[in-house]
Amino acid sequence: MRALRGISLDVRPGEIFGFLGLNGAGKTTTIRILLDLLRPSGGSAQVFGADCQRESRKARASIGYLPGELGLYADMRGGEALALMEKLGGRAAEARTRDALLDRLELARADLRRTLREYSTGMKRKLGLVQALQSDPPLAILDEPTEGLDPLVQRALHEILVELRARGRTVFMSSHVLSEVERLCDRIAVIRAGEIVLVSTVEEARRRSGRIVRVHHTDGQRQEIEVAGELGPLLTQLKDVRDIEIVEPSLEDVLASFYRS
Amino acid sequence: MIATLIAHSLRRRRGFLATTALVMSGFQIFMIMAARSVFRSGGFQQLQALMPSFIEQWTNMMAASFQGFVLFGYSHPLVELFLIAVVISIGTEPVAEIESKFVDLLMARPVRRSAVVARTLAVLLAATLLAIVSMLIGTAIGLRFMVPAGAVPPPARVVAALAVNLALLVLAWGGIALMFASFAHRRATAAATCGFLAFSMFVLDWVGRFWEAMRPLSRLSPFHYFSPFNMIGGQPLAVSDVAALAGIFIVTSIVANVIYARRDL
Question: What is the pTM of this model?
Answer without folding.
Answer: 0.87
